[in-house]
Design goal:
Blueprint: H1 3-41, H2 49-69, E1 76-82, E2 87-91, E3 95-96, E4 102-106, H3 113-117, E5 126-135, E6 138-146, H4 160-166, H5 182-188, E7 195-200, H6 206-220, H7 222-225, E8 230-234, H8 237-243, H9 246-249, E9 256-259, H10 275-282, H11 285-295, H12 310-327, H13 335-345, H14 353-359, H15 365-368, H16 381-391, H17 403-407, E10 420-424, E11 428-432, E12 441-444, H18 452-465, E13 470-477, E14 483-489, E15 508-511, H19 519-528, E16 533-538, H20 552-558, E17 565-569, E18 571-572, H21 577-583, E19 595-596, E20 602-607, H22 611-616, E21 621-624, H23 626-629, E22 635-636, E23 645-651, H24 653-658, H25 663-671, E24 674-682, H26 688-691
Parallel strand pairs: 2-4, 7-16, 7-17, 8-9, 8-15, 15-16, 18-19, 20-24, 21-22, 21-23, 23-24
Antiparallel strand pairs: 1-2, 1-5, 3-4, 5-6, 10-11, 10-14, 11-12, 13-14
Helix pairs in contact: 1-2, 5-6, 11-16, 12-13, 16-19, 21-25
Length: 695
C-alpha cells in the first residue's frame, strides 16, 4: 500500500472513532437538557426536598452542558497503542459510551500520562503514540511516534513534535496538549502544595505549561480550586489576550487571567514607565512614602475650626495618627478618633459633620495618588494596591439600599430577597424563591400573560406549600430585572444580613514571566497568594526590570516564601538553531543557553539608510525600541515578552540596548521571538557582543 493510501486508510479509521464520539456528545447534551427539565419539576415534590434536589440537578446539568459546549474543536487529538494490545484515544475531556466504556480519556487523567511521558528510552509500555489533527469533527492529519522495538502496523507521519513545530502560528497561541514532552508533563503534574519553580529559556514551553497546569489542578481537585480560586498572572495585557483562548480550549474557563497592570480593581494599565522611574516606583522604600501620603492632610481640607488654626489642626492630625497606629487603626477607619481628638481640643464641644467630611474624608488610593498625565502605568498599579492596604476600608453607616439600586440591572442575575412571580416569553409565568436565581416552578402557557389574578393564585398555592401564607401582592422585580409581583406574607421572611464584599481568595497562583517582578509587585501578588500555593515560571536571561531579582531564591523570598521545588525545562522547541545561537550571545554571564530542538532557521542582517522605508517593504511582525515603535509602525519591544511570530523584523538593536540598564536582556527577548525567520534592519552599528561573530 502506498504512503498516500496508507495515510488515507488510517485517517478513515480515526474518523470512524471521532464520528462515534461526536454522536455520543449529542446524546450527552440531550441528557443534560432533560436533567435540567427534570430538576425544575422536582420542585413540586415538597417544600425543602424539591428545592434541594432541583438545585443539585440543575447545577450538575449546567456544568455538564458548559463542559460539552466548550469542546467542539479537536475533541480527540491522540491515540496510545500499548504493547499488550490496549488502545486509548486521548482528548480534551473524557467521554464514555452508553455502557460506561471509555471512548476518550481526558488528557489530565493519570491514564493519559504516557501520551506525554513515554520516550524511546522509556516507552512505558507504549508501542505507538499517534497525534490526531482535526478541523472541527473532521480528521485531517495523523503523525505517529513508534516507541517499541516490535513491529507496528499502519505507521504514518513524521513524528508528533516535529510536525507541530512545522505548522505556522496563528493570531492566538495554540495549546500544546498534543506535543507536551516528558519534562513539561512533570511540571504540569507537580504537586499543588507549596511553591513549584519552573525555569527555562525562550520556546521551552513555560507559558503552555502554566496554562495546562491550571487546567490540571482544576481537574484533579475541582472541589478545592473551582469558583475562580486559581489566578494566572502574566506580564502584559497583550500577553494575556494572546493566550486567553487556550484555557477554554482545554475545558477550563473558571480561572482568573490577569496582567500585572490589571491586578488592582478598576484600573487597566498597559504602559510601562522608563527604567529610571520604574526603579523608584518598584523599590520597597515606596511603602514608607505611601504611608506618609495616606496620613497626610488631603487637598482642599479646611484650615480653620472655630478657634483652631492650621498649626493646631496639623498637631491634631499627628495625634490622631499616633493613637490609631498604636491601636492598629488605618486612616479610613480613623474618623471616630479624629472626632474625639478635635472635640477634646474644643473643650468637649461636638465637631460638625460637615467639617469632618472635608477634613478627614474617606479616601481611595486614586485620591491619594492621582494618575500622572491622566494615565496609570503598570508601575503605578502595585502602588495603588499598597495604598488600598494602608488606607483600609472607610467607615460606612449601615443603611437600607435604595429602591433604584434594587432595580438596577447588573451583570448576571441578582438573587431575590423574597418570592416573586413574573412573566417569561419562553416559559410563561414563573415563580422565584428567596436567594435563588432560577425559578422553583413554571406555570407554562396555561395561564395567559395578562391574567395576573390567576398567576397570583397559582403562585400563592406554591408559596403556601413552602410554608408561607400570602396576604396580598405588591409590585416587584425578578432576578433579571423584569417586572413582577412580590407577596406580602402573614409572617415576614427573616431579613438577610448584608455582607461587605471581600477580596477574591485564591488557593493557587501561577506567575508567568516572574523574573521581572519588582519588590513592590511581589508585595501586591503576595497579598493575593496569602492562602495559596504557587507556581512560578520564568527565565533570568529575560529579566529586564531594573529591580529584577538576581536569583530565584531572592524572588521566592520577595513573595513571602522560604523554599521551592525547582523543575528545569532545558530544551527549546520554538526558536530554530540559527537564531538561538546568535541570541545566546546576549545572555548575561552565568546563564546557560537553552538547547534548541529545531534545526535551521533564517537570519538576515541588513544595514539601511531609511528605517521607515525599509520596514514598509517588509512582511511579518515588526519589533522596535519603545521610543521608535510608532515611527516605524512596530510593536514596542517591552510588549513582546512571551509572544512568538513566524517572521520577525527587528529594527535597530543598538537602540534597544541603549534604552535601559538591562538593554542586553531586552535584546535577547527580541531576538528570540521568531520561530522561522528573523530579519534585522539597522542604520547604527550593531552591538558588538552579539553580532561581531555573525557571518
Amino acid at each position: 500500500m502506498s504512503e498516500t493510501h496508507q495515510t488515507a486508510h488510517q485517517i478513515a479509521i480515526e474518523q470512524q472513532v471521532v464520528d462515534q464520539v461526536y454522536a455520543r456528545l449529542e446524546v450527552m447534551r440531550g441528557q443534560a437538557k432533560e436533567l435540567t427539565a427534570e430538576g425544575h419539576s422536582r420542585a413540586a415534590s415538597g417544600p425543602v426536598a424539591g428545592l434541594v434536589e432541583r438545585d443539585a440537578m440543575v447545577l450538575r446539568a449546567a456544568a455538564t452542558l458548559a463542559d460539552l459546549s466548550g469542546q467542539e474543536e479537536g475533541i480527540v487529538f491522540g491515540r496510545l497503542d500499548f504493547d499488550d494490545g490496549d488502545t486509548y484515544r486521548i482528548g480534551r475531556l473524557g467521554v464514555r459510551d452508553e455502557n460506561r466504556e471509555p471512548l476518550v480519556v481526558d488528557w489530565r487523567a493519570p491514564a493519559a500520562a504516557p501520551f506525554y511521558r513515554a520516550t524511546p528510552g522509556e516507552p512505558l509500555g507504549v508501542a505507538r503514540r499517534r497525534v490526531i489533527t482535526c478541523v472541527g469533527p473532521r480528521v485531517v492529519g495523523l503523525d505517529d511516534d513508534v516507541l517499541s522495538q516490535q513491529d507496528v502496523d499502519g505507521v504514518v507521519g513524521e513524528g508528533a513534535l516535529l510536525a507541530s513545530l512545522h505548522r505556522a502560528r496563528g493570531e492566538h497561541m495554540r495549546d500544546i496538549v498534543t506535543t507536551i514532552q516528558r519534562e513539561q508533563d512533570e511540571a504540569i503534574r507537580a504537586p499543588a502544595a507549596g511553591v513549584t519553580l519552573i525555569t527555562g529559556g525562550p520556546g521551552t514551553g513555560k507559558t503552555q505549561v502554566a496554562l495546562h497546569r491550571a487546567a490540571y489542578l482544576l481537574y484533579t481537585d475541582r472541589g478545592r480550586f473551582a469558583d475562580g480560586r486559581v489566578l494566572v498572572v502574566g506580564p502584559s495585557t497583550v500577553f494575556t489576550e494572546y493566550i486567553g483562548r487556550v484555557l477554554p480550549g482545554l475545558g477550563e474557563e473558571n480561572v482568573h487571567l490577569r496582567a500585572i497592570g490589571e491586578l488592582f480593581e478598576g484600573v487597566v494599565a498597559t504602559r510601562r514607565d522608563s527604567a529610571e522611574v520604574a526603579r523608584s516606583k518598584g523599590d520597597l522604600k515606596m511603602v514608607r512614602v505611601l504611608t506618609e501620603l495616606a496620613w497626610d492632610t488631603p487637598p482642599n481640607a479646611p484650615e480653620q475650626l472655630r478657634a483652631l488654626g492650621a498649626d493646631d489642626l496639623a498637631k491634631a492630625r499627628l495625634e490622631i495618627r499616633r493613637r490609631c497606629e498604636a491601636q492598629g487603626v488605618r486612616p479610613n477607619g480613623a474618623r471616630a478618633e479624629a472626632a474625639r481628638v478635635l472635640s477634646d481640643l474644643l473643650g468637649g464641644r461636638e465637631v460638625p459633620d460637615a467639617f469632618l467630611n472635608a477634613w478627614w474624608p474617606p479616601l481611595t488610593p486614586q485620591d491619594v495618588l492621582p494618575a500622572q498625565h491622566g494615565e496609570w502605568t503598570v508601575d503605578d498599579v502595585p502602588l495603588l494596591d499598597e495604598l488600598a492596604e494602608i488606607l483600609g476600608m472607610p467607615e460606612r453607616p449601615t443603611a437600607a439600599r435604595p429602591e433604584w439600586q434594587l432595580r438596577e440591572l447588573r451583570s448576571g442575575a441578582r438573587l431575590p430577597e423574597s418570592f416573586v412571580v413574573s412573566w417569561s416569553l419562553n416559559d410563561g409565568w414563573q415563580l422565584f424563591a428567596p436567594g435563588l436565581a432560577t425559578p422553583i416552578a413554571l406555570a407554562g402557557q396555561a395561564i395567559e400573560n395578562n391574567n395576573f389574578w390567576a398567576a397570583q393564585r397559582w403562585a400563592a398555592a406554591i408559596v403556601l406549600r413552602e410554608g408561607h401564607t400570602v396576604v396580598s401582592w405588591g409590585d416587584g422585580f425578578d432576578p433579571y430585572g423584569e417586572e413582577g409581583f412580590v407577596p406580602v406574607l402573614a409572617e415576614p421572611l427573616p431579613v438577610a444580613e448584608v455582607e461587605e464584599p471581600v477580596d477574591d481568595v485564591y488557593l493557587h497562583v501561577i506567575l508567568d514571566e516572574a523574573q521581572d517582578l519588582s519588590p513592590m509587585e511581589c508585595r501586591m501578588i503576595a497579598r493575593r497568594a496569602a492562602h495559596a500555593s504557587m507556581t512560578i515560571l520564568g527565565d533570568l536571561g529575560q529579566a529586564t526590570h531594573p529591580l529584577a531579582a538576581g536569583s530565584w531564591p531572592e524572588l521566592v523570598k520577595r513573595l513571602g516564601r522560604r523554599e521551592a521545588r525547582t523543575l528545569d525545562l532545558p530544551t527549546g522547541y520554538r526558536v530554530p538553531q540559527a537564531i538561538a545561537d546568535v541570541a545566546a550571545r546576549a545572555l548575561p554571564p552565568g546563564i546557560e543557553p537553552t538547547r534548541s530542538f529545531r534545526p535551521g532557521g533564517t537570519l538576515t542582517i541588513r544595514q539601511v539608510d531609511d528605517l521607515a522605508e525599509a520596514v514598509a517593504q517588509e512582511t511579518g511582525t515588526v519589533i522596535a525600541a519603545d521610543h521608535l515603535a510608532a515611527a516605524v509602525n512596530a510593536i514596542p519591544v517591552s510588549q513582546v515578552k512571551g509572544l512568538e511570530y513566524d517572521r520577525v523584523v527587528l529594527v535597530e538593536p543598538a537602540d534597544i540596548v541603549a534604552a535601559e540598564p538591562r538593554g542586553m536582556n531586552r535584546l535577547y527577548v527580541a531576538l528570540t521571538r521568531a520561530v522561522a525567520e528573523l530579519v534585522i534592519l539597522h542604520s547604527k552599528p550593531l552591538p558588538a557582543e552579539v553580532f561581531d561573530r555573525t557571518g
